[in-house]
Design brief:
- By secondary structure, the protein is mainly alpha-helical.
- Helix content is 77%, strand content 4%.
- It is built from 6 helices and 2 strands.
- It has helices at residues 3-20, 38-48, 50-68, 76-99, 102-136, 143-181; strands at 26-27, 29-33.
- The mean pLDDT is 85.
């Protein structure tokens, strides 16, 4: 695929990612939303590499912030969304590239989901939830409340988000991969 075709495809994946971010129903809490916009970023990552996926995640969140804004006035949720997306797509990319099979994709998605969940628990505990509470003027949670919130909300949310993204990626990616391979030779390098 030539450079122009690749840029057009990346642009289309970015636009699709932004559009899919509008379909983000809240789950467990008003600010925890299932973001289907991660799927084009994952596809871009597997087709063109992790920098492409990171760029799509970044563009998706910047554009969404400028369109919708943030309830806190600062993009805490968008930074968390970007971070979660990157934490998911990096393990998926590196594991899938090593095995490059359907089973490898399943393993990559499971590891990506678990990595995203573990890191987001840590980041929510240390940064995102305290920053969100402060920006909204909420009283900070004590250790027991925070632990309970993590176990009952943050962990299940990230596991569900990773599972949904994984299933959709597993269903779409093999078809897209073969379609990209069938592009006319005039688009090939």
């Amino acid at each position: 695929m030539n450079r122009t075709s690749k840029l057009v495809m990346i642009g289309m994946l970015s636009a699709l990612s932004v559009l899919l971010m509008f379909i983000n129903p809240p789950v467990f809490a008003d600010f925890l939303k299932l973001d289907l916009g991660d799927i084009p970023a994952l596809i871009g990552t597997l087709l063109f590499g992790p920098l492409t996926g990171i760029a799509i995640e970044f563009l998706k969140n910047v554009i969404d912030f400028f369109i919708k804004g943030s309830p806190t006035g600062i993009p805490i949720g968008h930074i968390a969304n970007f971070t979660a997306g990157v934490l998911f797509l990096l393990p998926v990319y590196f594991i899938y590239k090593k095995f490059n099979t359907n089973k490898g994709l399943i393993v990559a998605c499971v590891v990506g989901t678990l990595a995203m969940t573990a890191f987001m628990v840590f980041l929510n505990y240390t940064y995102f939830l305290p920053a969100y509470a402060k920006a909204q003027g909420f009283d900070p949670m004590d250790m027991g409340e925070l632990f309970s919130y993590m176990a009952g909300t943050i962990i299940p949310f990230n596991l569900l988000k990773g599972a949904i993204d994984s299933v959709v990626l597993y269903l779409l990616y093999p078809r897209l991969k073969s379609a990209v391979k069938r592009l006319p030779k005039s688009m090939a390098k």
